[in-house]
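Write out the 3D structure for:
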Amino acid sequence: MASDKSAIFMLVALIVMTVLSAGPLHIVDNWVNTAPRPFYDEIRMFLILWPDTIASRGVAGPVLGVVALHFAYQYQSWRPIILSGAGLVGMIGLVGTMKFLLTRGHPRTFNPAFFSDGGGVSFPSGHGANAILIYGIALFLIIRYKAVRPHIVHRLAWTIVVIAILQSMISTYLHFHWFSDLATGMVAGGFALRLVIRLDQMIPEGYTTHWWWPWRGRRLWSGEHRAAADTASA
C-alpha cells in the first residue's frame, strides 16, 4: 500500500487540507459560517431528519452491507465483506483519531481554530468521509463484479458526487460543520477508498472462495444439500 502512487497522492492531499484548515482557510470557513440562512427555522428539522442522514453510517452502512452480502453470496467469497469491513474500520479510525487530536470547536462557537479550549470533534467531517468511502466501496464492488452496464456506473458515480455536495451544503447550512471539515473529510474518505482498492489488488484472486461458508452446498432456506436435491429432481 505504501508504494501506491494514488494513495500517496491522497495522503499528501489530506495533509495539505489539514494544514490549510488550521489557518489559511479560516476566512472561507467564517464567511460560509456567517452567511445568511434563509428559511432556517422552517426547514431546519426537515433537513436534520431526512437529507442530512443520507451520508450517515446509519443509512450508507446498510446500503453497503446489502451490496457486500449480495456479492459475497453470489460468488461465495469473503472478499466483499473483508473490503467493506476494512474500509469502514480504517475510515472510522482515521477520522476519529484526527478529531480527538486536533479538537476543533463547533461552528456555533464561531472559532475555527484547532486545539480549542472547550475541545471539540468537528474536524474532519465523518459525514463527508462516509459519502465518499461507503458509497464508493459499494460502487467499486459493483464495478469489480461487472453487475451493471458502464452507463449505469457513470450515473451511480454522479449520484455519489451529488450526495457529497448535498451533504456538504446541508451540514454547513445547519452549522454542523465548517466548510473545511467537509472538504477534508471527503479527502480522507477518498484516501481510505484508495487503500481499499489497493487491498483488493493484494488479495489473490479466488483466495477467499476457499474459506468456510455456512451455506456452502446447501439451499439457503431449506438447508437441503444441493446434490441431494438435484438427484431427487432427476
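Residues 152 and 191 are 24 Å apart (CA to CA).
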